[in-house]
Amino acid sequence: MKMGIVGLPNVGKSTLFNAITKAGAECANYPFCTIEPNVGVVPVPDERLDKLAEMYNPEKVTHAVIEFVDIAGLVKGASKGEGLGNKFLSHIREVDSIVEVVRCFEDSNIVHVDGSINPLRDIETINLELIFADIEAVDKKIDNAKKKLKADKKYQEELDLLEKIKTTLESGKSARTISFTEEELEILKDTYLLTMKPILYIANVSENQLEDPFNDENVKQVVEYAKSENAEVVPLCVKIEEELATLEGNDKKEMLEALGLNESGLDKVIKSSYDLLGLMSFLTAGEPEVRAWTIKKGTKAPKAAGKIHSDIERGFIRAEIVSYDDLIREGSMLACKEKGLVRSEGKEYIMQDGDIVLFRFNV
How confident is the model at residue 210 (pLDDT cuts 50, 70, 90)? Predict the structure, then answer.
């Protein structure tokens, strides 16, 4: 799963990417420093794996991962090819969801592409370009649906839906603000609208603002806009996160404590991004390996088994499952079995986050 990090030039995008991935993406104080997208794969923080590793002392611990893509900064007119607009739009089409970085701090040493700090204006600059691109795509779909309608009346439903989306887009709202039915989503599955992609807003603040970010006027603007899209806002100081990313163990813990934080902003971003994509993890645990496996929420047991190996899905018999909380509380799998906490689940079982599983299969 890919998360595309977007924003206007010089809002802290590439610095955030560097901090998240430690991949050393180029970062500089001038527009369009990022041209080709930088890509980094990072582990999803999961304290459960640490606890299971203490219990099993495995040879290997494997986290779930998520892929972040640092996409070129965008400016007005991108939908018409201004700046690196065409590349920006093509790169954003390839990601599953969007992380939009919004600058909320003043600093005369860092150039703002529009000359002043205005988070709402910055968000609307980017989102309007995505809306313009979507209107163009919807217009083509409408023309196509009208042609098909002449031969088959079943395309009336598709045409009505596309017209509804166009009306929303032309009012300046993203397609994600519309509540779609399952049937409508099925009709739209090949439409690939940019403004239907899930979005997470990052409010990039100064160290001073970090003390009480949600009472800051600039951050409030971002939160208010995000509410209209049912989106989440994570405030963080990219500059601090860059420093935290170089620390490990006690050094990192001490700096977090000094800042009055329980976890780094980056951990929040990664976890929120994982959740934004509708993902969760089931776990396998033993001496060879403790591992988190990524699946979509609502996945049934055989499909989850297929994440490990297609043979396990094909020959699925049952899943032996204990919840993470039960295992940690009881202290061992044997104790869980003695108390009847290990369940045997069949093909219709819907996996839950934190299920610890042993799949039984026969090929």
Answer: confident
